[in-house]
Amino acid sequence: MALEDICGFTDTPVHAKWFPTSLFEDSISSIHLTDNCTFGLRKPKKSEGNGGIPMDFFIPTLPNSASFNHRPLPSPPAKYSAMVRRPFPLSHGTTTLGFVFQGGVIAAADTRASAGGLVACPAVHKITPIHSHLVVTSSGSGADCMLWERILAREIRLYQLRHRRRLSICGTAKLLSFMLHPFKGTEVCVALTLCGWDKGVTAATNSGPKLIYVCSDGARLQGDVFSVGSGSPYAYGVLDRELRWCLSKEEAISLAREAVFRATHRDAYSGNNVDLFHITAQGWSRRAREDLKEEYYRDMKRREKVAEERKRLIK
Amino acid sequence: MEYLIGIQGPDFVLVAADNVAASSILQMKHDYDKMFKLSEKILLLCVGEAGDTVQFAEYIQKNVQLYKMRNGYELSPSAAANFTRKNLADYLRSRTPYHVNLLLAGYDDADGPGLYYMDHLSSLAKAPFAAHGYGAFLTLSILDQHYRPDLTREEAVDLLKKCIEELNKRFILNLPSFTVRLIDKEGIHDLETLTSGAK
Q1: Of B21, B51, B91, Cβ closest to residue A181
Q2: Which of A161, A252, A256, A269 is buried most, with the most CB atoms less than 10 Å from its CB?
Q3: pLDDT tens per residue across span B175-193
């Protein structure tokens, strides 16, 4: 693959699968005389470009890596892990949304984590702050999202320490997209929406609210409104009608809540509560978590009242 | 589904691409630009699988620019097209081929305008007109019927409009707007975005 070639990833299980003879020259399984005449297994190669992370961390387990385990190697099979059978089905049910308006960026999400037909956890945080002016909403596989958010936060912080300036939101998105690219085609399922405010030092065009969608498929899209997850079509139905640039802060918050509420009503895999973050030039602020069950009963009462009113007027 | 079209005239190339970035059944963006500027007079139009398009097109774009930095002059459209095809071919039988369909349009100061059709199996063909996507099935016959090698710019835009009308009439998917660009000896010009009119 292009990125592998550039980084020189030759001693990986990926490479080994297609060039099996090179495995016997591979140092992982062989015992070497290292410097100072000490016997020892050579340490797993660390890739310099990744800040000293062992490379086997980045290499995904291959779908048919079970074939590796038949090979009579003396070394522990740490690098060639057997296929783990999950005791439950993965599910990607969620409703998250983000949009840009005159008062900044709103990010909203439900809080249900589902595993097949089971609600694995009714109170999950799907919106995570990365730094003071960037928040990321996650959908897809919960474990993958948690991991990649942490990796992203670490890489952003490292960039800030190395270059003494904060990476722009566009740069953050590109970095994340390139980090996810090696895992394209595997079962990694991560669809993140970066919602942030660029405090541009350079060009005035680059600063301001930003909303970028990054997906493990490789898609990276900048836009004004995104909704991701199984409940997203329902959310789009509400957002597309009412969303305008000139909304006030209260209207925008109420629109985001309404969109998530309608999506959780129709989508089985979304529900429980709604989280809402608002990002401005001063940073992100978080609204208290709201139970959508209450909202549903309030909505029912509202409808009853409207129906009663209509009956009275007709009489 | 995505749509690309290119029409070569005697001293220009006209290209257009739809503006939809889709994810399963949803249009995530309505104003997505699928054209990548390789140099002052070369455009690469790229459609296909979600991440592969941007990764591959940016890779080619940066390499063409690197060639210019190293050697002091730009790659010709023909050389760029062959370079692109070679890269596609090299990754075709690897573990991770790039699933992209391309049109490369350029103006060479020596050879004039050129339109190159490439597909995900790394075939390359220099053609007077070409299209990619399901929309190509509907519009290639229109191009066959009305294309002439000595089209003026206005006639080429009219031919493009005919093709888009046909798409709006018969294609099952909604492609509301198209980015249109023209390349000639002066460089790349943005023309008016063509919309379907139905909002």
Answers
A1: B51
A2: A256
A3: 999 999 999 999 999 999 9
Task: Locate B40 and state its tokens.
Answer: 């002052």
| Among A93, A89, A90, A91, CA closest to A231 | A93
Residues in chain A: 315
Count of beta carbons in the 10 Å neighbourhood of residue A165: 10
Please say if A205 is a catalytic residue: no
DSSP state string for B105-119: EEEETTTEEEEEEE-
DSSP B155-198: HHHHHHHHHHHHHHHH-SS---EEEEEEEETTEEEE-PPEE-S-
Please tell me which residue of chain A has the smallest CA distance to B55: A218
Give the pTM. 0.75
Alpha helices in chain A (DSSP H): 2-7, 13-18, 22-25, 55-58, 142-163, 169-180, 232-242, 249-266, 292-314
Give the total residue count for chain B. 199
> If you measure CA to CA, which chain B residue comes closest to A182?
B96
CATH architecture of B4-195: 4-Layer Sandwich (3.60)
Q: Where are the domains of chain B?
A: 4-195
Query: B interface mutation test: which of A232, A234, A240 has the most B CBs within 10 A?
Result: A232
What was the ipTM of the complex prediction?
Answer: 0.79
Q: Is the pLDDT of residue A120 over 70?
A: yes
CB contacts of B23 in chain A (<8 Å) are 215, 219
